[in-house]
Amino acid sequence: MQDSSSAESTRDASLTGDLYIYNPSTHHTAFESNPSHPNVLIFLSGQTEGPLHPPYLFTLSSTLAKHSYSLVQPILSSSYLGFGYSSLDDDVKEIGILVEYLKRERGKSGKIVLMGHSTGAQITLHFLRTSPLSSQVSAGILQAPVSDREYMVWKGPESVNKWLPIAEKFITEGKGDEFLPREAYSTPITSARYASLTSTNLTLTLDDYFSSDLPTDHIKALFSPAQPLLILLSGSDEYVPPHVDPTKLLQKWMSIRAEMRRVTFGVVINGADHTCSGREEGEVICGWVEECLEFVG
């Protein structure tokens, strides 16, 4: 989900650490604050974003240091405007390369936790579900997981009704990599990625992890990772339609996880917007992350 601008001041909004190339074939880089620590939290930002977003990352970095964790923020092919012509599978491959690099080249001998904000949340779950390296990750944290489909249908049903059939037609013709016209979306986007965001055809919707109307059996598959999950929903998320109750949705996910005997922590942060841009909301996020790290430890 594309993020709104943060209202928090950028005063003291800086981190020090190491910047390095983790993927030589693409020259993709990652920034690591508190690099001397043996444990790692890899943070995945939302759609059209990259490192240093959302604003609570500055507080999160210092919180992690207290628990001997560094904060790693990678650039992926899907970062910034690359979202529309990348895929979750691409993200998984690149995060796998990062995980291997952290262990081999950076000497990370402790635990690895994956945390995603917004679109980063579905990347996190997709990695835990599909990557051959998922066993290297000790836990997943989902902050502001929201449905792109429900948001787009809520805000622009005419646009979805116009462009989704065109995208699906391209896909059936074997042209899923073809770009849609500029007016179809806020960033350049392929037919395959557009359908993945907006279609109700579950064979096309790789991105649809968090819609409230997904069948229970499908949710079980999506939320199947054995690792503990921490789910942090925003009570006043501007990307959640009025008909979706965050509390009921969280209860649904946690109930399904409980049936599968999976450890899950979850909370709805009252008054928080999509990025938890207020200082108090950011501190609540960091407090829950601390709880998760202590449990994993």
TrEMBL record:
Signal sequence range: none
Protein name (Swiss-Prot/TrEMBL): DUF1749-domain-containing protein
Top-level taxon in the UniProt lineage: Eukaryota
Pfam families registered for this protein in UniProt: DUF1749 (PF08538)
